[in-house]
Amino acid sequence: MKIKILFFLLFLVAAVMPCISGTHPNMLLTRAGVREIQKWSDRSPAFRKSLADLKRMADLAMQNGVVVPVPKDEGGGYTHEKNKNNYAEMNAAAILYQITGDKAYAGFVRDMLMEYAGLYPTLGLHPSLRSSTRGKLFWQTLNESVWLVHAACAYDCVYDFISASERQYMEENLFYPMAGFITNGNPENYAVFNKMHNHGTWANAAVGMIGYVMGDRNLVDMALYGSLKDGSSGFFKQLDQLFSPDGYFTEGPYYHRYALWPFMTFAQVIQNQQPELDVFGYREGILFKAVDAMIQQSYNGELFLLNDALPKSLKSKDIVSSVDIAVKNNPENKSWLEVARYQDDFLVSDAGISTARALLREKPGPVVLRSAFLSDGPAGDAGGIAILRGGSRTGSACLTFKATSHGLSHGHYDKLSLSFYDNGNRVITDYGSSRFLNIESKSGGNYTPENYTWAMQSIAHNTVSINEKCQFDGNIKVSSRYHSDINYHDFSDPSLQVVSGTEKNAFPGVTLQRTVAMIRLPGLGDPVVLDLFRVRSGPEALIDLPFYFNGDVVFTSFVLAKNRDLLKPLGKENGYQHLWLEASGRPAGTNAVFTWINGSRFYNLTTLSDSGTQVMMVRTGANDPEFNLRSEQGIILRQSGVAQHTFVSVIEPHGLYDLTNEVTAGIRSQVSRLQLLEDTELNTVVRIALADGSSCLFIAVNADFDADKRRTVTVEGDTIQFKGNFQLVKETI
Amino acid sequence: MKIKILFFLLFLVAAVMPCISGTHPNMLLTRAGVREIQKWSDRSPAFRKSLADLKRMADLAMQNGVVVPVPKDEGGGYTHEKNKNNYAEMNAAAILYQITGDKAYAGFVRDMLMEYAGLYPTLGLHPSLRSSTRGKLFWQTLNESVWLVHAACAYDCVYDFISASERQYMEENLFYPMAGFITNGNPENYAVFNKMHNHGTWANAAVGMIGYVMGDRNLVDMALYGSLKDGSSGFFKQLDQLFSPDGYFTEGPYYHRYALWPFMTFAQVIQNQQPELDVFGYREGILFKAVDAMIQQSYNGELFLLNDALPKSLKSKDIVSSVDIAVKNNPENKSWLEVARYQDDFLVSDAGISTARALLREKPGPVVLRSAFLSDGPAGDAGGIAILRGGSRTGSACLTFKATSHGLSHGHYDKLSLSFYDNGNRVITDYGSSRFLNIESKSGGNYTPENYTWAMQSIAHNTVSINEKCQFDGNIKVSSRYHSDINYHDFSDPSLQVVSGTEKNAFPGVTLQRTVAMIRLPGLGDPVVLDLFRVRSGPEALIDLPFYFNGDVVFTSFVLAKNRDLLKPLGKENGYQHLWLEASGRPAGTNAVFTWINGSRFYNLTTLSDSGTQVMMVRTGANDPEFNLRSEQGIILRQSGVAQHTFVSVIEPHGLYDLTNEVTAGIRSQVSRLQLLEDTELNTVVRIALADGSSCLFIAVNADFDADKRRTVTVEGDTIQFKGNFQLVKETI
């Protein structure tokens, strides 16, 4: 009986949820937020600038008048870009109306929405056939959802300004039909609306937000709990599925920030409209973890170039929006405030003014970036990405180690790959994607063919390829079945940070195991990276390990013969066809040293070599008829005809090359010798000797990982005992 | 009789010049300056930082103690770098002694000078044979002069601290022998000391400055008026000879700022010691003109890459020093103050504190950069360099046009070459020099062989090469005999800036004439560059005009067939051997369009084409066994077997490619068509048609240049009358 009453009360609460109460605006901007902006914006120069930018956009749009073209073009084309700009402009005008009270802004929004309401019922599917989920206003429904998210906010701001009959006309002709089309316009749209995918997030946000504005409980519930309203899909299910427990988004950082935008936007609206759902507390604050994971996946203000990715600044508008909303709903996190300070731009909204005000109060704050491990997979058991940092200041060294699942359609075949940043620069990097955004002459602004033939291939990454093949033979269905495993990671000691991963499925019958350590050695100004890559194959194989580096070659310890007057591609397929073979050499002795300059520093790759080692220098650009590839260079360590091999390398930043003041210092590597003392299924033991005569042993455990387990290793007759998965032993000579 | 008395009085004034009065310090730092620094440095955070940097250097040096190695190495090697650091460190300590009064600093300077005084008499010539003017402390006497300039300042600061006997020891064993060695240690040094060359400037400054400190009139007079003290050489003669009347330094901006350092340093000392010489007023303020000319030869805070040049920031210490001294001695020039604000760093000296104080008083000031013409040659009649700017803000378009004399040993064979900067980026650029500064493994830190085989060659520049040969056949003796001529330049109308140059000697029997105009057309957001390059040859020839561009190719209007799986060098010699031929095509029709992205903008090269036009895409790196060349790309316009040809091209910046906010706009060129309507010895007439249907005619006069002359040209039956050397006619259709 009591329970029934409770349910009844709950139902009452839900039925009178604020959106139905008729309060407007109450989305990203609320009445309280408007008052805050009116009162405080003059105090924050940065916020004032963001507001001025918005005003400039709105004013210019109003000068040009309302133009709503009939959809025709794809991304980059006129009608696409115009309909895209329209949503931004009407949203800007709507916000300006609220802040200034100037009815001209509201009139502009009304007129534009009336135009769209007149147009929309006349539209069939978009003429472009390129997308499997064709939209009406746009060539893909995704863009339609993004349009509706913005239009819902704009509508909310002018809701009380517009007459009831106009509202009825808009809702009947535009908003309900569009929400209907997105949720269930056809089987493809229905599938996307209920799919665990960033396109689904946009669809949910669009439908939920217009539902809140119109006070339509049905639309809101479908957005939150899926078409069946049973929680089997919808926004909350996406919060369960799309992020790992550490907040990692499986497609990688570039799509992470894109997906996070509707997640955070819709969450803020839910928070305003249904605070009782505590959306930001959901799944132990998964949205906050996702914001943090995105920020951690950056260097020098740019997201890591992993999977399909173009350079993307933390200053991009979508990240500004997510960070402002995060700060507003969790003002305790001073790291995010520091990111907001760096962005120097705000979402003109409750969240934005709140963040701007916090920055006026707070002095420059604590460390933003740290070493971090981000597990992959909804349960956090599908490998992950490790980020090792040499420090928290801008310019500190940073190593990324990727041992995740495939990452859906935007994933690359890059298991156990690493990237290295230092001194504010990309030193050893991933290529990212091959794409020219919205440039029609470049594959219609979409990914170029070379994204598949090069950028996704294993040889394009700083990881192992075997027999000139791609991991998983380049088959996404197979790759998506598996993930790498993280054996352990330990960043507790800033002077010795270690992560180890294993990949057993990328090449049938081959086990790849990579252990990377960022080690701060006495006498060296900077940490070095020790890289142990064990390959255990069945039959004899050709094993390639590339390091794509930026900069100019200054020294090699061996004859690296450069091809003077003839260049040919390194191979025929799997990405090898895109590499010009520029130089090749066979190091004599047991170590090969390769030095280059990047920016104002020198970098060394010292690697173990033997009689079977070949070092090749390559450059992208072969078999690239459309000039789609950037010209980038790498060296490839190659071992031929071996059933197993362990690559042992040290990456060492050193010295100073200051062209401004003409100071060159510390040119020489301080690593004088690498030795592989033991390499069994149990342990790998490496000695790093320095030029000052000191040396150390690094012992990596290769199996039976256990941070508490006691181990005994005998090295050159000495017995070494330690606990855990690795050990650094400083030697005195 | 009266004249005799006047001479006698002048002699008296000279004899009691302040240096002999025993006032110390009185070089870059004076007693008054010390008081200013003590009083004001805390008020300027930037000056405080410069002072703190100096203190850090001095303190660290004192921690490490005095180490004076016996000279052995060349640039980049230990003894070279250590003896170089020593002068900076003793100078830092000496300044700190004056400012803080802490005698430990003075003691350190004394100890170091005593060490050098002990070492110097034991030294023969430096073991390295690489320089024709071997030094004792360094492999070339130049470095010895630089050492002495700093040591003189240091000695001056601690002069009163050191005992008379110590001073005597230092002067007898170090300063007099070194000054003697620099002035006349051997015939080579004697020649350099009296040579019109930046090495001579350093030698004069060194000898003059130590002369002032020691109160030695003989040394000072030799420095000012040459070994013969008759004004036939020495500092004042250099002021006459090394700069053009516009302040242009013939070797180009990179060596300009290096030469300016001792010029300004020594001038400040002369001003302090012998103000009656009015050194800054000499030759109508030639030193100020030189400072201004240096600043004008910069873009986005970096000097132009012309002749032998590495990237060089306006923030480099030598430029900081020159700008501070310029500001102190001409505080009216607010442009220089703005450069000092940008530098955010000061010379810890009278000039530095004075500049820092001025910045505290002055609000951010007027325009620093402008369109400018800088004549070359002591009399200003040896051609010159033109700098055309689209505006004064950072990021405004900037075109350089070089039609100078050769530029001594650092000159390139680049007559009539252009470079183009926009949006803060190098868009079409010179390669600069092939050099890795002070890196021993790279040609001992000096210019690499490719500096001669590539960087200096004509094909490495954005100008014409004929029959795959270098201008002047790459013979510096021949090239140094001639200079290009500037026909006219007119920057009076910001919307139509034009310069024209002629070169008649680079290829025997061939006349090269280039007219470039920066034109702001209605309807275009940015100015375009119209480039008319007329080649009049006797016999039929192969004519190449390259444009080396930075960025990614996005569009070509013609089939530019890229070599998929085989690259070969373009040629065998004269720089052609260093170019990989990446792609080639023959445009159909009368216009060829080539579009690329650089940073966040698109750039178009639209060029007139005919059935004989070949367009090739090339990349540096062939025949480069030591990896000395950077990988850079260019397109080459080639006409074969023609006795004459006029290249007509438009460079057009447009649109926006904003990866941060994913906005792509204005991809398409607005230049729809170029037509060459007339091309005679008298006039060239070109029509530029725009996509909006508008068009304009540009008429360039090719002979009989006269800004006041009235001209009549008939174009398509219409008679056009105008005055001067060029005309822009807007057409209505």
What do these coordinates show?
- The structure is a homodimer of 733-residue chains.
- Residues 1-21 of chain A have low confidence and may be disordered.
- In chain A, a hairpin with an 8-residue loop joins β11 and β12 (528-549).
- Chain A is of the alpha+beta class and 733 residues long.
- The first copy, chain A, starts with a helix and ends with a strand.
- The first copy, chain A, is built from 19 helices and 27 strands.
- Chains A and B meet through β13, β14, β15 and β21 of A and β13, β14 and β15 of B.
What is the topological layout?
2 copies of one chain form a homodimer.
Chain A: H1 2-15, H2 18-21, H3 31-40, H4 45-64, H5 78-100, H6 103-119, H7 141-158, H8 164-184, H9 187-193, H10 198-214, H11 217-225, H12 235-241, H13 253-273, H14 282-296, E1 298-299, E2 302-303, H15 317-329, H16 334-343, H17 350-361, E3 372-375, E4 384-389, E5 398-403, E6 417-422, E7 425-428, H18 449-455, E8 465-466, H19 476-481, E9 485-493, E10 496-503, E11 511-519, E12 528-549, E13 552-556, E14 561-562, E15 579-585, E16 591-598, E17 601-608, E18 613-620, E19 633-654, E20 656-658, E21 663-665, E22 671-679, E23 683-690, E24 695-701, E25 710-715, E26 718-723, E27 726-731
Antiparallel strand pairs in A: 1-2, 3-4, 4-5, 5-6, 6-7, 8-12, 9-10, 10-11, 11-12, 12-19, 13-16, 14-15, 15-18, 16-17, 17-19, 18-19, 20-21, 22-23, 23-24, 24-27, 25-26
Helix pairs in contact in A: 3-17, 4-5, 5-6, 5-7, 6-7, 6-8, 7-8, 7-10, 8-9, 8-10, 10-11, 10-13, 13-14, 13-15, 15-16, 15-17, 16-17
